[in-house]
Amino acid sequence: xxxQTKLFEKQFIKSRNAIEKKGITMAKAALTEQYNAFLKRxxxxxxxxxxxxxxxxxxxxxxxxxxxxxxxxxxxxxxxVRNNMLKAKAETEEDKIYNSVFQLKLxxxxxxxxxxxxxxxxxxxxxxxxxxxxxxxxxxxxxxxxIPEITSNLYKQTKANLIGNGYxxxxxxxxxxxxxxxxxxxxxxxxxxxxxxxxxxxxSGLPNIRPSHIEAEQYSNSRDGLKKDETFPNGLLYPGDPxxxxxxxxxxxxxxxxxIVW
Length: 262
Fold this sequence. Notes:
It is a single chain. This protein is mainly α. It has one domain (3-193). 69% of the residues lie in helices and 5% in strands. A two-stranded antiparallel sheet has the order 1-2. The protein starts with a helix and ends with a strand.
């Protein structure tokens, strides 16, 4: 990978981190909406039916809306990649056009590839709430609580679970999805140049990198880059590839870089 590409990577990651920071806040809000939807229904439902209403109250829509707002944000990164590859100046009318094009492409990519991710996130929220309900009801049996105590403790433990586990999940969700979105955006940008290009896996010099990701970086460097449709040794087309296993993509911080073959 050329020195210029490594220098650009630092700018790219800085911009990506800013998007991720916004995403964490957005993901927290989406998870909170799921939790609160259950609590609102539970307040008017007999405690013996709480587990029965989890699936009907905790829906996919808040996560879907979060994704629909989050993915297009990476269009600005795509414009950065395109300009860097073409050595073009930023802030032109063409940039605005490509920004809109990349937003549409990222939205389509989301719709095509992320339904299972949205479902898994929602299922995890449902499982967390079922566990809270079980814990409250088990303690109610032990302590001999009445309905007011049971209801009060449901609210207390649900909020504690959201803050203690849900917010950590929000960070992991935002981080995982921004890697997927930003690296796919980079692919769109590279394709938009109309030139032949090579791609490089970069661990960005971060600590505690998975061995398979270090191998992917070393492999692409030893090859002086891979062609567009070539997979890295871990089977991924790029970091965060939605076709990869959870072990390969969850909490990944790696970056895909591109260089035109002049």
